[in-house]
Amino acid sequence: MRLWTLHPRYLDAKGLVALWREALLAQKVLRGETRGYRHHPQLLRFAQQASPLAAIASYLAVVHAESLRRCYAFDAGKIGTERLNMQLDEHQGQLLHEWQHLLCKLARRDPARHALLHDTASPMPHPLFRIVAGNVREWEKSRPRRSLADRGVTEPLILRDSVHGSIPHHQRNQ
To answer: Cα separation of 163 and 135, whole Å?
Structure first.
């Protein structure tokens, strides 16, 4: 499940449809209508609100608006009626982390869209979020890994596999 901090305008068709489905699932979870995903980290920022259902409905309303802009037929009747009249704070580091994640997905899935977006220096957030200073969220599963040097590795790593034999780490992906 990925409930993007990014504005849905950046998503390709597959990404927007997936976001719609995942946000509707999140709404069901917050309503207590499903047993799965209750502890999913992507739900934290919604579940911690005074009105979680208003928060997710406000999020979904923007996703729906983007679907209309693209002439998709998402059913607005599936969105709860409550709305927030405030923005939720989200970290700049989280927004930029997601931006890089999306660009990697687009490079594989939709190279033309990737080419249009890859020079964007400051992506817009979903309008529900107000961007504040801060790092990638602790709940982010794909947090950036520390470099080898940051982990105290000073010698080159040698990886062994049955096909290539020994491959120094710094040459592995060349």
So the answer is: 40
Over the stretch 36-80, which tens digit does the pLDDT of each residue have?
787 788 898 999 999 999 999 999 999 999 999 999 999 999 999
Q: How far is CA 7 from the centre of its chain?
A: 10
Question: E-assigned strands of 88-168?
Answer: 88-91, 129-132, 158-161, 165-168
Spatial neighbors of 162 by CB under 8 A, at least 6 apart, are none
Can you tell me the distance from the alpha carbon of 37 to that of 134, in angstroms, rounded to the nearest whole number?
26
Under a CB-based contact definition with an 8 Å cutoff, are residues 136 and 94 in contact? yes
Residue with tokens 């983007």: 66
What are the contacts of 72-76 at 24+ separation with CB within 8 A? 72/16, 72/17, 74/20
Residues in the chain, overall count: 174
**pLDDT-above-70 percentage for the chain:** 80
Residue 159 pLDDT: 44
